[in-house]
Amino acid sequence: MSGSQMRRTNGKEGGGGKDLQVLQNEYKHMQVNRNAFANESELVLRKQQTTLNKLRAENETLKTDVARLQTRSMTRPINSFEQSQLDKLYQELDKYSCLVEAEKAK
């Protein structure tokens, strides 16, 4: 079957080139969109990783502070101010532990 016969069979004599051009343009747009999405996703992941690293570092600092206060409280009784500080640190520790777990779950 010759090229002109194939065009007639498809019902679009000479229109195949336009269809191909349209499809090529759509393909290029899809590639651009895919690359933009990949770049945006990578940026979001980097931000999340940075936030997660900060939370982990802060979590370790809080654990150290709590351990230091617990050790100190074992050697002498703590006053009400120190107890309130310790309670706040425990609350922060719980909060950041939950945030870290939520990030891990994503």
Quick recap of the structure?
This is Protein CASP. With 106 residues, the chain is mainly alpha-helical. It has three helices and no strands.
Which features characterize this protein?
106 residues, mainly alpha, 89% helix, 0% strand, rod-shaped, disordered N terminus
Provide a descriptive summary of the structure in words.
Keywords: Coiled coil. This is Protein CASP. It comes from Skeletonema marinoi. This protein is mainly alpha-helical. The protein has one domain. The protein contains 3 helices and no strands. The radius of gyration is 31 Å and the shape is rod-shaped. The two termini are 57 Å apart.
Mean pLDDT: 84
Total domain count: 1
Give the DSSP E fraction (strand runs of 2 or more residues): under 5%
Helical amount:
over 70%
Number of strands: 0
Helix vs. strand class: mainly alpha
Oligomeric form of this entry? single chain
H/E topology pattern: HHH
Biggest sheet layout: none
Could you name the ranges where pLDDT drops below 50 across 5 or more consecutive residues? 1-12
CA-based gyration radius = 31 Å
State the distance separating the first and last CA atoms. 57 Å
Overall 3D form: rod-shaped
Helix count, DSSP H or I runs of 4 or more residues? 3
